[in-house]
Design a protein that fits this description.
It contains 14 helices and no strands. It has about 300 residues and is an all-alpha fold. The longest helix is centred in the C-terminal third of the chain and has 29 residues.
């Protein structure tokens, strides 16, 4: 049973979504730095492991109650698999073979899968024509910003990123249950990454072996810490808060905003140039998001009907 949510987001939810997109936009950069020295499973394990340490530190400092039932920990473990183990591993592996720009485009298909999965499993998040239109327009905006990929890009790596987005979609739907379980979003985030860490440690050791910690450069350590604390720990607190308030479909819109955040961060801090396609793409994303939110479009439709109705 899933508790009801507000399908139309308010200013607070939109602000949280924008901040989340900035935190996740930086993750592609942090992964890009770390992947030059460390194999995929090692990066993912460091990411969730360090995030778990950070989150449990907050929980103990604030004296928050931790889950005590097997049912709760089973759900958190499943969430860790769907939202961390599968997608993180697939994305990091995919970024070895394809550029981050293409990874961002493929990652932006998450709302498309989210709409489909939510329609199948969540009665209060059924797809509408306006919502589907908004997702397609927003995705077109992402493609405009980065350009169409070359034909010679690694197909298996692209499929890996798409597999990650499908896993994210199922995670968004599955995560709705934590509202009815009355678990604080910080505790949910901690339980999720803890479950993922417990699963990943033996897998990583078997595949990648024990990493040589002294051989890891300071730059890579900084990227791993930022990836864990900013793009994972803080990001997932926001993730579960938005999921609790606005539902899976609205939450997954963040993947349309992540490329915008990544490009704007590059312009602000890396002196990267913003071209006309970037601004056009952002405009399409804004139109798509407004259609998915629906309030402006419904008001416009109501006013149009009022004008055409004879007095």
């Amino acid at each position: 049973m899933n508790a009801s949510i507000n399908t139309a987001m308010g200013a607070r939810e939109w602000l949280m979504l924008i901040i989340l997109s900035i935190l996740w936009g930086g993750s592609f950069f942090f992964v890009g730095v770390a992947v030059s020295e460390l194999p995929p499973f090692t990066i993912v394990t460091f990411r969730v492991g360090l995030a778990a340490i950070g989150l449990w530190t907050i929980i103990f400092a604030l004296k928050m109650p931790a889950p005590t039932t097997i049912k709760a920990w089973r759900a958190l473990l499943a969430m860790g698999v769907l939202n961390n183990v599968i997608p993180f591993t697939l994305i990091v592996w995919g970024q070895i073979y394809i550029p981050s720009g293409l990874a961002s485009i493929l990652n932006a298909t998450t709302p498309l899968f989210g709409v489909i999965v939510a329609t199948l499993f969540l009665p209060d998040e059924k797809a509408t024509i306006l919502k589907i239109f908004g997702v397609i327009v927003g995705f077109f905006g992402v493609v405009l910003m980065f350009g169409l990929p070359d034909d010679n890009q690694n197909l298996l790596a692209q499929l890996a990123i798409l597999g990650a987005t499908l896993s994210y979609a199922f995670a968004g739907v599955f995560g709705r249950r934590f509202k009815t379980m009355a678990i604080n979003p910080i505790v949910t985030a901690a339980g999720q990454v803890t479950g993922a860490t417990l699963l990943l440690v033996p897998i990583t050791y078997a595949i990648d072996g024990m990493p040589s910690l002294p051989a890891i450069s300071n730059e890579t350590w900084a990227s791993l810490v930022a990836l864990a604390l900013l793009s994972t720990a803080i990001a997932y607190i926001l993730y579960f808060k938005i999921l609790e308030r606005a539902g899976a479909t609205n939450l997954l819109l963040v993947t349309l905003l992540v490329p915008v955040s990544a490009i704007l961060l590059g312009a602000l801090f890396l002196d990267e140039k913003l071209d006309v396609p970037h601004f056009i793409g952002m405009a399409f994303i804004a139109i798509g998001l407004s259609a998915i939110d629906g309030r402006f479009w419904r008001k416009f439709s109501t006013k149009s009907r009022q004008k055409t109705t004879p007095s």
